[in-house]
Amino acid sequence: MLTLREQLTALYTNEVEPAEVVGAFRRALVVVPLDERGGLWTVPYGGVWWIHAFCDEAALARFAAAKSHGTEWDYVTTFGARLLDVVVPAVGEPTGVALDLGGDTPFFLPPVAGVVPDAAAVVTTAGGDKR
Q1: The pTM is what?
Q2: Does 121 have pLDDT greater than 90?
Q3: Domain-embedded: residue 126
Q4: Could you tell me the CATH number of the domain that includes residue 108?
Q5: Are the beta carbons of 47 and 130 closer than 8 angstroms?
Q6: In this predicted structure, what is the pLDDT of residue 131?
């Protein structure tokens, strides 16, 4: 079985499907940086809150260095499934996970059915409007 990082690389070379990466994310321990208040580091974009997660500490350190935040960030480690099934619904607003941003193989887990619980999923219309 491929690691999450290996799955991401395989996705970018068209060797696996996105659903396989979602499955690997659910099974993997991921690193989630904390903000200055001790909450999970999130960024709003396109009407969605994006929780930032990383495959490992090294990926977080590279991201932090690129953002000029130094390489020392407080973080928690959790299973991807916990982020998607517990944390995302608890936010109460459209929330997804941005994995390994700033790296060679970033991956977005949007708040849609099949990725997050149906109650936390955003439904979009043909025109792109969210319901």
Answers
A1: 0.89
A2: yes
A3: no
A4: 3.40.1350
A5: yes
A6: 53
